[in-house]
């Protein structure tokens, strides 16, 4: 499975942004597509994933209630809708095929997409 992130940008605090993850290739079910982020000087963290079979989702406490992960099966795309953005959400965001614990990814990291929350 190959994944390419897009949709990052500059947004003011309280604003919204939608990221896209284009998925190509095949993987055996079940598999999980997750979003990760890495802020300057911090470790990369897994923030959400969606499962391939039933669309099961997971959210880290840091984004729960503000971010929503979804998928468009026909377009082979996973989205991350981010709302009520905070300055601390500033990071490079990556999507990757992962496992439910989000402690491992398949393949290597892509380029990511920069999200900057600033007034």
Distinct helical segment count: 0
Total strand segments: 10
How many strands, which pairing sense, and closed or not: the largest β-sheet?
6 strands, mixed
Classification by helices and strands: mainly beta
Round the Cα radius of gyration to an integer and report it. Answer: 13 Å
How far the N terminus sits from the C terminus, by CA atoms, comes to: 37 Å
**Quaternary structure:** single chain
Low-confidence stretches: none
Overall 3D shape: globular
**Strand portion:** over 45%
pLDDT averaged over residues: 95
Helix content: under 10%
In short:
0% of the residues lie in helices and 49% in strands. The chain has no helices and ten strands.
Task: Characterize the structure shown.
Helix content is 0%, strand content 49%. The chain has strands spanning 2-6, 9-11, 17-24, 32-38, 45-51, 57-59, 67-72, 77-82, 91-98, 113-117. The chain has no helices and ten strands. With 119 residues, it is an all-beta fold. It has a six-stranded mixed beta sheet, with no helix packed on it. Strand 7 and strand 8 (77-82) form a beta hairpin.
Task: Spell out the blueprint of helices and strands.
Layout: E1 2-6, E2 9-11, E3 17-24, E4 32-38, E5 45-51, E6 57-59, E7 67-72, E8 77-82, E9 91-98, E10 113-117
Parallel strand pairs: 2-10
Antiparallel strand pairs: 1-3, 3-8, 4-5, 4-9, 5-6, 7-8, 9-10
Q: What labels would you give this structure?
A:
four-stranded antiparallel beta sheet, six-stranded mixed beta sheet, 10 strands, single chain, 119 residues, mainly beta, 0% helix
């Amino acid at each position: 499975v190959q994944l390419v992130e897009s949709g990052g940008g500059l947004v003011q605090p309280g604003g919204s942004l939608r990221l896209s993850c284009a998925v190509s290739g095949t993987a055996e079910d079940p598999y999980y597509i997750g979003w990760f982020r890495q802020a300057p000087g911090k470790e990369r963290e897994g923030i959400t994933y969606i499962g391939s079979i039933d669309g099961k989702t997971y959210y880290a406490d840091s984004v729960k209630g503000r971010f929503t992960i979804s998928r468009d099966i026909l377009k082979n795309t996973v989205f991350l809708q981010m709302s009520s953005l905070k300055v601390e959400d500033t990071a490079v965001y990556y999507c990757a095929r992962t496992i439910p614990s989000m402690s491992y990814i398949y393949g290597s990291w892509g380029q990511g997409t920069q999200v900057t929350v600033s007034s």
